[in-house]
Fold this protein.
Amino acid sequence: MKFHLITLFEEACDAYLSASIIGRARKEKKISVTYQSPRDFVAGPEGSYKKVDERPYGGGPGMVMMALPVVKAVEKTLKSRSKVPRKQVIIWFSPSAKQFTNKDADALAKYDDVVLVCGRYEGIDERAKKIIKTLAPIKEFAVGEAVYTGGEVPALAIVDAVTRRLPGVLGKDVSVEERRIASSAVYTRPETILYKEKKYKVPKVLQTGHHAKIDAWRKEK
């Protein structure tokens, strides 16, 4: 499975995607991650600053990413993967879109190529979305209810959520918490922690080995 991030800040994304479980999945070639910068599609002398934003029509603070550099970055990414038939999807982020869920992550795990378009500043010229819809199917998501400074954080969240569902990434399928009865309250050794003369103990039910009772406790939590 291949993730393609359209971003101005590859270094910010790659630090996270090279670490821990995601980094191991990349090394073991269970996934691959590529980057494409919209700046690469702006004319200008070699080594010069490539401007990809402009003031918004209608006024207002901030700047808006121009449509064509984004479109061309997506187009090049899709063309590089078009030598053989592949199931491709483009992800567009918007705070007002549908919230991304585990079901969405399961659905994305069935694609060969997932292109994640990371906006910045006040957003991306809306015409970019209209154009890229003609290149491949597009899904629009919000990741959490907060507004971020860019699409990189939501993109990383989606790569993480999808990757952990792929066979062999977590070692065993049962390690995917949402596919079993799991609780947000978890404990490990030692059985008792002493802190400032107060004891904090592991709940007795977790020490019984009685799986039905443990599952009932986890459901309650």
